Each structure stands twice: as C-alpha cells, then as structure tokens.
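Example protein as discussed:

>
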Amino acid sequence: MTTPFNALIIDKIDKQVSASIKQISLADLPDEEVLVDVAYSTVNYKDGLATTGTLPICRKFPMVGGIDLAGTVVESKNPAFKAGDRVLVNGFGLSESYWGGYAQKQKLKAEWLVRVPEAFSLEEAMAIGTAGYTAMLCVLALQDWGVKPDDGPIVVTGAAGGVGTVAIMLLAKLGYEVTASTGRVDEARPLLEALGAKHIIARDQLARDPGPLEAETWAGAVDTVGDNTLASVLAQTRYEGMVTACGLAGSINLPTTVMPFILRGVTLRGIDSVMAPLERRQRAWDSLAELVNLDLLRQIYSVEPLSKVLTLARDILAGKIKGRVVIDVNA
C-alpha cells in the first residue's frame, strides 16, 4: 500500500468550482511515463483564475491545479530520463487538461520535461517559473525582431508582477532602457529600480482611452495587461517597433485601431508559453541561466506552503501580490 500524499484538487459540483487540499495515492495519478517527486510549484495569474473558477481554465474535473512544477524524477518509462534527473514543466495544459504541480508527486509525459539548468536550484527554477520563462520568451521575440538597446526605451506593463519583474531584470541586463508601468508606484519603486528600471510611470498613464496614434515613445514593449493599457502602448510605439503581449490582467479586450499597424508598421507579437515547442523552451531556459542575477531574483520571490494557495489565488487576482510566489508543496 502506497503512502498517501497531498494535492490541491479543483472540482466542480452543481456548476460551482471549489478547491481544497486532499490526500491521494500513486494509483490516483494519470497514466503517464515519468513519475516526479515535486518540490515546488508557483502561483501565477492563470493559477488564480483556475483555482477560484473565475474563468473556465480547467477543462475537466477533478483537476490538480498548478501550471508549472520542478522536481526530481523517481522513475521513467522513457529512456530520455532516469531517476535523479532534475526537471521542470511549464504549461502544456497543466491545470487545464492535465493534472498539474500542486501535488507532492505527479506523473507527466516525457516530452513536457525540460532539464533544470545547473545554474538553478529547484526553488530558484520555480522562482523564475512560468512567469519568468514567459518574460524570457518576450525578450527573445524583441531581440529576434531586431529591437536593439539603442533603438529606444522598452516599456513593461504590470511591472510589479511576476512576468514584469523578471522582464525588467532581463532587459536591463541586456542594456535596454526600461520604463516600468505599475499601479503601485511608491510601493514598488525601490524594487523596480533595483531590478534595473530607469523610469517608472503610473498605471493610469496607459490604462485609459487612447488616441488612434500618440507620440512615438517605445521601441518595444512587454505587455501583461491587455485592454486599454495595450492599446495605449500600441498607439505610442515607434515606427516598426514591436509589442509583445502575454497577459490579460486588465481584461481580454483590445480597444485599438489599425492605425499603429498600417501607418507605423508596428508589430503585435502574441507570446504563448503553454504550447511553445521544446526547442524554444530550451533556448529560453538556457538564456535565463545566462542572464538571471540570483541575488536580484531572491528579492522578487517568497516561498509559501501548499496550504496558502487558496488565499494566494484570490490575492493575485486582486493585484495584491508583488513579484513571484513559490509554493513548497511539501511544507
């Protein structure tokens, strides 16, 4: 008889979504190739939506929440991995179609797994997590488009959040002039400046009804907000600049016009971290290993136990969380 272990189960009964920590066994886990002892997961905005049932993130029930995880392989039916390998997973439908990281053990498909870079502990890998990996995808997209540091400033919206804080760190390390947009200017200023932001602007400067075109300001952008904020950024982006969009903290709406695209040649690049191919994922994690300052990383995350996920899920939707929250699933 196997020893039971803890998992946060999201269920739907009479059209009502609820979540609670329950004990399950290995026999309850999905029939996948690789068994992992999970060490850490995280709380992302998407986790908040799934755990609270605010949006229908979970496509089947019951569901183990947590869109990412880091841990150690216990056993594997796939020769690509062996016991003792340190691995992580970001996205691939975890907490949507497949059981996720809010469990002390999980069975996973081998093709989802990325080896944790030697530069990071398992805790540090989840301090970066899906948010930091997404930030890296945004930065790589800007670089691949040809946006260079001397082309002009880059604006990061939702700057005090998980994606925003890591994006600022990465962009600053690469030599870009970063402007951080946040709704918590006074509270977040010391941290954002420590991460490398040269300028900090209040959220309201962008979260408003924009004109079709406004003064050319940004060579590029990392947007986590959507809605009027993204529309304002597009209206202010310089000729042939690029805006990367990876979030919807404001809303799913985009009240813009075609003017930035047809008169300034602005490119809006959607960033999907969930189903990105393995080659792109590996490139992102290899780049993170080169660029992340671990001393700065320690300033932007905290570690909390699995028992606090329900509270943290509500807090992240309410905009009360600054930086990253790592979940110790064994605490």
